[in-house]
Amino acid sequence: MTRFSRKQNTIRRLIIFLFALFFTARAFCEKITDRDFSFSLDIPEGFEVADYTEDGMSYIFSHPNIPVTLVMKICNDPTTYSAPKVLQDNLTKLGAKGNTDSFFWNKKNCGISNFTMTLDDEYFGWGVTAPLIIEDYFILLLCYAPSSKPGCEQFIISTLNSLCLDNKYLQTPGIITSYAFPPEGKDSVILNIGGKQISTSIDKVDEEAAKFTIDLEYAVLKLYANHKLWKEAWKRYYRMIYRDNSGRLKQVSQDIYNELYYELKAQYSQDADIKYAQALLSWVQNFSYNRAETKNESDFTSLPAAIKGKGNDCDSRSMLVSVLLNYTGIDTAILISRDYSHAMVVTDIPAPGQTFTMENGREYLMGETTAKVTWGTIAADHADRTKWIPVSFNE
User: Fold this and answer.
1) pTM of the model
2) How far apart are CA 379 and CA 337, in angstroms?
3) Taking the CA of residue 279 as centre, how many other CA atoms within 13 Å lie in the half-sphere pointing to its CB?
């Protein structure tokens, strides 16, 4: 446990006192999951529990390498009925300054605030609140850093953006991204998959919003370049992008499935899954290739941009296939490799070919997205399984 000065401990006790709670305490790892209230947080790697109340309804997390503090509180207020008011009331208790906005996220009225406050130092940060599945309960998150460390803002936003209120919303854009990029209306897209034209649509804001998430998470990922948790940070980077981008392709996934799968099912019956997977793999293998020119930006092309014909690389293609197959209920993930500077897609479809043993012990069929080959065919110089890192999206 991290050691704190007497002044720091006093400040932490002050926050805990203001956030009086009543629940059973529990220990948290990187991915915080609360089964009672059905919310989760996929926060950046390395956060440690700095303090908590005995009833388990309030926690303070600190990071040993980055001067960011996260406060998480479960609020019970049967009189307020408003997440924005819960946020504003708690900021007022802390003497924080900042306006609280109200907006809808996942069909629920939520609150958001960009605030400043004075404790033992001058701080800036962001706060969000949202209703939980149990009536009159709210999740409150405050994440802040010293005002002298403005470079921490992307880390703060990424932390809060990882909130998920319920598993059914796991594949939807994060709370802050949704606030910053509200829907603007349909943007029609025509896809050509296996010679078949498919009409579909995304939102007009999706490409810009998806790029925002990618840039945000890449800024966080770079902080872990030489960190002992670099593998875990890489996995989180792709999970955060997948969550945002897949949420923007629900209509696309449905339209592709409706146009292709039922026809293949009628033709091939038992082999429809692998035929559908091959149609998707062959489609992305024909995409135009593009990588970032500098290391200051991610070379991951957003999935909304990829389906609109923008140049992309192996990880974008692999994730796109994963999104489309996961939509059908077939568990599909990606593999990434720092050694090979490459990515592949893997799927839980029983078929002949090269496989990779996933963390669940199952053999997943490997798919190469940059060469025109079938599922289960990979290059010999990419065959060392120890150099691949699996990233699952259905956990």
Assistant:
1) 0.91
2) 14
3) 22
